[in-house]
Amino acid sequence: MKVCSKLIIFLLFYLNATSLLAFNKDSLISISNDTSNTVDDRFKALKKVTYFYLETNLDSANKYADILNQFAHNNNTSNYLQESLIIKGVVLQFLGEIISAINKFREAEGINRIRKDVGIEIMLLNTYGNLYQETGNLDTALIYYRLLLNKSLINKDSQYVSLAYNNLAGTYQMMSYNDSS
Prior knowledge:
By secondary structure, the chain is mainly α.
C-alpha cells in the first residue's frame, strides 16, 4: 500500500505536468534563470526539473522543490505558491518525511481556503488519507477517505469516488489484518 499511494500521488502530479519527453534539464534550468522569459515559463521549467529529479535523485528533487517554492514566494502568486507547496510535500513524502510533508500540504490547504479549488481540496483529502495510512494511523486515514468520498460524490468526480472506495476497502482490510494478528 505504501508504494502504491506514493505512486498515485506522483502520477497525479506527473500527468498534470507538461510532457517531459526529450527535454534537456540544463536548458530548463537556463530557462528558469533567464528573467527575459515569462514567470509562467520559468515556473514550469523549474517544475519539470523537480519532477525529473523526483524520478532520479531525491536530494536534487528536494533542492529544486525548495528553489521552486522560493521562486513562488518571490513572485507572490497564490497558485504558484500552492502548487510549489504541494510539490514540496510530495518530495518530502518520497523522502519518508511524512510529518514535514503533511505540514507542506496543510500550508497548501490554507491557500486553498482562499482560492477554493475543489480539485485541490479533493486531492489533498486523498493525500492526507494516504499519509495517515502509511504511518499506520488507520482510523485517521478512514476519516479522510470518508471526507474524500463525500466531497467526490457531491462534486460528481467519479475518478475520486472510485479511489475513495478503493482506499476505504484497503484500509478496512489492513485493519482486519491487524486485528487478526
